[in-house]
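for the recovery benchmark. tokens below, seq after
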């Protein structure tokens, strides 16, 4: 069957050693013309197709990179993956997608398998990459790029957006449209993205007399987290009139929760999210958001990684992309009577 013959089968039919077949395949070392023709003829007869991984073992690149995501069901990540895939394809590389479900052990096993499969490099968009795995990859000279966060005590190449400034932009926008008591629904604090967005909120509002730490409620970066958080928030602060959610999924949960309670957005409570996922345009009302350049971030990750693979560059780098506020109906300017 086509593709099933092995290098040993070729060597046997040609009457040469496996090492000789390998030299012919990889054009590495001297093989006389007559022997080379025997090997080529044997390959044609057996319909032998050299395996990309096997060629990788001989020091060649496999033209494959891996992308490890925390949760493919989050609409942020398909757009990121598309940016990575398009850039990789343009540069002659294929992408393997791995979903870690935010589980450290699952991610560890992926890294181990990927190293054995001889991928040329890995992009991490996950949240559970540990110091031990980083050290292992550095020791095995496996290039990698991290999206959003660096690992503690490790110097790595990181691509992220300016989360702190983006959060300040969101809160300032809510103040500018007339909000007088603004709350924040935040993501998991082990993630630097969530911490920086919370810090941006707090730095902007802590000087106001209405500010209280209880205006900050956790929402886990999930839709149902936003739904539950808005319940808690309105129980603690029924007079809140602006909500900055740390990502769009939570903000969409907030919109749903407010609608259930019959609270008008933005007339009674204005809502702003963060990320710029496409679902924000489908929401009713359409959601104001601080948009990351998601596709561009993915494309940059692929380009930076592939450059490392091709040049052998091991230098760390930090690439920080700017965000922009997209104002929609959920923060329409209020008309004061």
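predicted aa per position
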């Amino acid at each position: 069957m086509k593709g099933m013959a092995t290098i040993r089968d070729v060597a046997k039919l040609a009457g040469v050693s496996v090492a000789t077949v390998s030299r012919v395949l990889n054009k590495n070392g001297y093989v006389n013309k007559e022997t080379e023709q025997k090997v080529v003829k044997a390959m044609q007869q057996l319909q032998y197709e050299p395996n990309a991984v096997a060629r990788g073992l001989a020091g060649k690149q496999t033209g494959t990179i891996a992308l490890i995501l925390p949760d493919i069901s989050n609409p942020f990540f398909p757009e990121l993956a598309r940016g990575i895939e398009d850039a990789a394809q343009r540069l002659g590389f294929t992408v393997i997608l791995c979903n870690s479900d935010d589980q450290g052990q699952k991610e560890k096993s992926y890294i181990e398998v990927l190293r054995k499969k001889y991928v040329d490099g890995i992009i991490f968009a996950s949240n559970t990459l540990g110091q031990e795995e980083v050290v292992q990859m550095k020791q095995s000279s496996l290039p990698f790029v991290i999206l959003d966060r660096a690992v503690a005590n490790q110097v790595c190449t990181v691509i992220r957006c300016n989360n702190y400034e983006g959060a300040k932009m969101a809160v300032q926008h809510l103040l500018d449209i007339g909000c007088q008591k603004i709350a924040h629904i935040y993501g998991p604090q082990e993630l630097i993205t969530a911490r920086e967005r919370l810090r941006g909120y707090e730095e902007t509002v802590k000087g106001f007399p209405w500010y209280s730490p209880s205006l900050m409620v956790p929402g886990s970066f999930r839709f149902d987290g936003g739904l539950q958080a808005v319940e808690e928030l309105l129980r603690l602060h029924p007079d809140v009139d602006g909500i900055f959610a740390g990502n769009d999924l939570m903000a969409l949960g907030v919109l749903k929760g407010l609608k259930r309670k019959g609270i008008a957005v933005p007339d009674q409570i204005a809502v702003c999210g963060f990320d710029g996922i496409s679902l924000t345009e489908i929401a009713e009302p359409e959601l104001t958001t601080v948009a990351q350049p998601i596709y561009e971030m993915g494309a940059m990750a692929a380009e930076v990684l592939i450059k490392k693979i091709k040049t052998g560059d091991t230098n760390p780098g930090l690439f920080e992309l700017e965000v922009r506020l997209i104002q929609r109906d959920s923060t329409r300017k209020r008309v004061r009577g």
